[in-house]
Amino acid sequence: MTFLVNYVHVILLCIQLCPLLAEKNRPNIIVLLADDLGRESLPSYGNNEEKVPNVERLFMEGAKFNHLLSPAALCTPSRSAFLTGRYPYRFGLGEGSNGPPVIVYSSSKVGLPRNESTWANLAQSLGYSTKAVGKWHMGMDEIFWGDQEHGPLTHGFDSFYGLPFTVVPGFEGQQEFWTLQRSNSQILITVIILLLLGWWRSLWMERYLNSILVSNEKVVERPIQLKRLAERLTNESLKFIHQNVGVKPFLLYHAFHNLHKPVQVSDEFVGKGSGTPYSDSLVEMDYQIGRILDTLDDLSIQNNTIVFFASDHGKLGQNLPFKGGKGAPSLEGGVRIPGAIRWPNRIPSGFAINEPISLLDFFPTLNQILDTDYTLKKLDGKSFYESVSNHSSSIPRMLYHFCGIQIHALRYYDGRGSIIKGVFAKENLNSDGICSEGICNCAKAALIPSEQMDILNVTSDGKEEKLSSHAENEYRSLFLKTYNDFKKEKKTFSTTGFIF
User: Fold this and answer.
1) pTM for this one?
2) Sign of CA dihedral 74, 226, 139, 123
């Protein structure tokens, strides 16, 4: 009888401890997201001028994505799609007609809806400690300060330290209007414009209401001191890692403000790049990534930590060898981004994945790695874990490239190596392949009638080759069916809730 009682106690103890043991064996997860980083800026994609040893370390010790895609070519829609695994038109973060394409105020009432789940919610549901550090730019509060209707604390993060908004040229305090470097006529014109637009659009409002650094719901700095911001954000991430080692598995989302304009780096990084402020900012970001990777080594947790690195979309301006850049969803330069994933002993090191992978795929990939199926809604991405862990060939898939809620391009992978793109819009480019307005404005792109779409082979990096007439007809029918099916779906949802 005593033996039976002891046996029952052992069984009950196992029932209680098994979830705890499983929790401790789960991998830590670190997501490093760069801002406006183009592929051509990195040695792994052909740039031998830049020195970024820590970013390159991720490519050498992990798997490199050769055809990684952003779900959108601008910050807000791209980041929200990345976190949710869903196209932003599904939850109102595709821009509405005649409106700006991203959130333009830290106090905006719009943003990522409360009922959209993220991969941070997934981790939180499994007992992870979760933190977001850095740039959010998906909305914060809706009715009153601190309600976090759209913020990180509502979307799976236990804590947040960073920028609710983004960084813009008004933050660094060097606007010409304030330093009076304009002529009298320019100052007069500026004052008249400000009066017409209203004081809330003034540079003062930009710097003192949008430029805020927040710890959870508390403003800790206004305006943000940009020069040492990268270092301070990394300090927060390192503190979080140290707090959780040996206690709970953790998920850290570190979203850099590097390399978004205005570019301001700590003094020790000025002139350390290849000759431009953008390059200096890249070197500074690389150094901060090195601090995080070195900490994993020092704590001996590198082998049980997944590190995922990517950019939110293409670089502003030129993205050689591609055409277009930030803001151009139909062009490779707007949506082709660098990326790598490292998980020692689970993901082989030093190999490249050539099939199209989207930031949409990160959520379903974590679902597979963590052996769960956490989502409240249908995901648009698919897991890439088999591709990076077993080098297995993937199945065919179609990817959409939106300007707001309008398809500007479709990308089809046949599962055998060919990647074909159907293009429904023509951006206004200059002779260097750069959008004439700097940031590409896809809303002003000339739409191509669907029956006359351009069909291009984008299998080879940097090349957009026309297909033979026979092959073109095969893909044309496929793209037309997909395009028309979406037009029917679009009629079933209202655009009145679309933001901005």
Assistant:
1) 0.89
2) positive
